[in-house]
């Protein structure tokens, strides 16, 4: 009896010790980032962004799906700089690998500000209303990119300071904050 009790106590103490020193869990799935130290090859930095010692994820389109790619940046970068990195589109290496952008040749977003865990993206005057066939992918690219930032949980879109309804992954419109879960069916990881 004493041996069973000792074994049970050992199991409980071991379990508590192991759970107390692990990696904290996210509420949502998050893909692991590959770094230069892991031996993964990283795409070159975009024009205008100095190569750096950190990586940030942007979401491009490949085969009709949102696909995260890693960019090297000089830290720290703001949410607005991260958005501008996305708006530059795929570099030559990414284009040769089949990546495109639903944001190409548009001036959809004019800037981004972060307040706590929410990034607000200001849409330019050129965006009138949802309806383009690639709107879902365009907004998905922005949400996927900005929510990859550790401190960001959601993205909302405004125009002239007012919340603007934009399409989720299922094409339904919402004026509320969006998360990567809203585009999960369109997201692939490699």
Automatic annotation (TrEMBL):
Positions of the GerMN domain: 79-168
Disordered, as annotated region: 26-53
Biased amino acid composition, Basic and acidic residues: 27-36
Pfam family, any one: Germane
Signal sequence segment: none
Cited PROSITE patterns: PROKAR_LIPOPROTEIN
InterPro entries: GerMN (IPR019606)
Protein's name according to its UniProt entry: GerMN domain-containing protein
């Amino acid at each position: 009896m004493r041996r069973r009790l000792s074994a049970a106590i050992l199991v409980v103490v071991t379990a508590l010790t192991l759970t107390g020193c692990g990696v904290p869990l996210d509420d949502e799935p998050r893909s692991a980032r590959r770094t230069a130290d892991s031996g993964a090859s990283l795409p070159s930095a975009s024009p205008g962004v100095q190569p750096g010692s950190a990586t940030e994820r942007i979401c491009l389109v490949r085969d009709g799906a949102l696909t995260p790619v890693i960019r090297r940046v000089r830290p720290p970068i703001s949410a607005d700089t991260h958005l501008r990195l996305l708006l530059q589109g795929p570099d030559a290496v990414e284009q040769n690998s089949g990546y495109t952008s639903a944001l190409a040749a548009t001036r959809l977003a004019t800037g981004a500000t972060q307040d706590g865990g929410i990034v607000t993206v200001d849409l330019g005057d050129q965006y009138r209303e949802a309806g383009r066939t690639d709107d879902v992918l365009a907004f998905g690219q922005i949400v996927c990119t900005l929510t990859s930032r550790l401190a960001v949980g959601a993205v909302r879109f405004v125009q002239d300071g007012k919340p603007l309804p934009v399409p989720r992954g299922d094409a339904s419109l919402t004026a509320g904050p969006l998360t990567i879960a809203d585009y999960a069916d369109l997201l692939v990881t490699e």
